[in-house]
Amino acid sequence: MIHWMHHLQNHLSSIRQRASSPRPVLVLFDIDGTILDTRHTLVQLLQAYDAHTGSRYFDGLKCDAIDFADTELLDRLGELGAPPSAHSEVADFLACASRDWDRWIHACEPYAGAMEVIAQVQRAGVVVGLNTARPEAVRRSTLAALNRAGAALNVGFSDALLFMHSGQPGLAPTVAKQQAVLRARAAGYRVAAMVDNEPENLEAIRGIDPEREILLLHADTLYQSRQKDPSIPLVAGSSYQVEHLVDRPRLESGTQWFWGGVESETCLRGFLESPAHQTELDVWPSAGSGKLMVGREGPAEATPLSLQDTLLCLVAMERGARLRLPGSAEVLERTLELMDMLCLGATPGFHLSIPAPADGDAAAIQSLVADSNLGIDLQADPWVTDLARSCNQAQARVAQWQGLGIQGFSFQWRDDPTLPRAIHCLEALGAPQHIEGITNLEAALRTVLFAPASASVHFATPALRPLADDLGTSQPAAGRMRA
Ligand SMILES: [Mg+2]
What we know:
Helix content is 38%, strand content 19%. The protein has helices at residues 4-18, 39-53, 87-97, 101-104, 114-123, 139-150, 173-186, 199-206, 248-253, 265-273, 307-316, 329-341, 359-371, 384-388, 392-404, 418-428, 441-450, 465-470, and strands at residues 25-29, 36-37, 109-110, 127-135, 162-165, 190-196, 215-219, 235-237, 255-258, 278-285, 292-294, 305-306, 320-324, 350-355, 375-379, 408-412, 433-438, 454-457, 478-482.
């Protein structure tokens, strides 16, 4: 079965191909139950009741226990632990507390992947608007909460494209949603899709779309209404997965292939026979011969290659390499001497990557970096948490290394919010960032959404192999994707 986000990707592509007018393409998202999981707010409201009254009905209540739309809450209080005698008091408390929208509106969290999907749609040049039945009275706090939720992914929602319920008495949400679409069209947009968790809202949209131009996407989360007309095609999905929204041409044009690593003579031959122009080499000092070697240290079956022979071979074949060094001033010094001897001191095809040194080693390594003409980047993983917090000391370190000539800062991929925050901090300092160690498509696409200067992706892993084939490379080991 085709994933609902893949339907959206296909629909947007076909609209772009058919588009005869320059009208910007717009996708509208409902907010509650579609982008935001409102159960977080419900749990906080109910626990606030407990705190207010000293009861413990909702102690330990988790979002997962709520399997109904928020509009059904008052009828389902018993299932969540409140005795019948308390229902009217809980209802009064909720009615009173929910008037203070600004307090609760920030408790909602986006569904997993929802912001990534919106970021990907926006990156593809499609405009995203919000079509919600929330009242105009909460416009400012709604916009602020959503923009904050999307900030790490560079997602932005505009005031002009936040369509809300006017507050007109008796105006049904379905009609308010229709009016929003008509207003977007009047403002010059081509409305391509609407995503909503209530089927009745989507059915209403069909009523004002005789051209059948709007793809109706049903967020199959929690909802109250039922589809009345089965002939209206709703495309349903319960998870947002950005990998189904891959914009292949954009990905292709932003990917530069390189050979993922040379570990043996056979591997080196493979690289030289491939169309890739660059590779990555892990450098290590041999305890036996004292020479600098490349590849992975230790495998008995592999014949290690000397760094000098490998570099000579690469130069002869007009190929380049990024050399990853261990954290040792001695290895750095010897590598720089070797590259100087081979006249690779300022060759653009070669550069080094060194780990951020511990404070004790920093002075020796800093003086070598300052004297070198080679491009060198710093593996800054130990600093990621401090950079994410925009800690002054970490920022000062970055500035110091930039002053010595460090060209950029690299991090291993990690699936937590510190990575995008660290990237944004470095961006603000004017320092290029590179993300490594990505082995699946979702991580690759999410990383590109964070907009680092570049990201290395191992396309040779089984999960990414089909995409590499799709992108038309015969034997890729890895690729560098640019934001
Ligand atoms: Mg909704």
